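Support reply, case 0932

Customer input (verbatim):
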Amino acid sequence: MKNPFNCQLPIADCRLPKRRLQASAPSDSAVIRELAIVNRAGQGIAQGGSRLYDETRLRSGAWHAAIGHRPSAIGNTSAFTMIEVALCLAIIGFALVSILAVLPVGMNNQQKTRQSTLVSQDATMLLEAIRNGARGMDDLTNYVFAITNYVSFYNDRGKLQNPVPYAWGYAYGSAAYRNSAVAGYNLTNGARIVGTLSTPEFTAWNGQNTASSYQSGSLPLSSIFNVPYTSNRVYAYVRSLSGLAAEKPPQNNDLLRGSSFSYQVLCVNAPVANDPHVMTNAYSVFDQQLAGNLRHIWLLFRWPLLPNSSLPLRPERLDYRADVAGTVLLTNDYNVNQGMWLYFYQSQQFTNTP
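Our regenerated output:
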């Protein structure tokens, strides 16, 4: 008998190709039976029938092979939808924006804390130098780069004589009064710096407002009642004494020194508050002695200084106060021919008032 399957073996041994031929073209009834099996498998899964599910999965695989389909390897794996991915990205973006918004605030607070620490350390040194009348701190010439004293004159009635204050300007290389250069008043040593910062708030006035009259020296006043006087407001411009060693002398790089932390200091050397009527009372000798031998120091620090040595619109500020028991010594700098009058505290030295 001729072999219809073109097989070289006997017909009895050619059943496998026959089954493959039949499987390659399943009938509609076979497909319907397989779909029914798959449907029953879904019901079995819902009911927890693991045995029926295993049997059905095997038959379903055979059916897919029969119709020429191969089950997908990722058909049963779950994944994020595009909406879920978009929501995740939105949440992450919101968190990153919040972190980036808070980061500059944290850095600014850290910078302000560092600057406040530097000012506190420098304030202790400057306050002690002034209250002790220090004269050998020549290292201050590396840090105090300018001092300005705004001078106003008042008559014995307390009326201002010059609406615009006159300015004394001191620096290491020059000095000026009312924009006119004055020789020999440079800040070349620590005694000149401390002596200028210790200038009393109120000094006696001889009725003249020339540089030579001011250079003649003015005694500090403990009361401005019925006397002409001079009001002094002394500002110092200082590079931080504390901080990075790379910014400190002998560093001579102007760019690095100019970018270092700097601040302004208002130095007020005022007499203690007193009643002017008490000062004229012959029975208040103690009050007169107290006013003449007790003074109040107020240092107001403001920072940071801009490159042009001015302050920003809203500078940071700290103030330090101390009472000093003793007298104020008025002396002139012997290195100046006309005499650069300086003021130094004589701590714990008292004078009797008759």
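We compared this against your earlier run and they match. Two observations from our side: The longest helix spans residues 82-131. The longest strand covers residues 316-333. Please reopen the case if you see a mismatch on your end.
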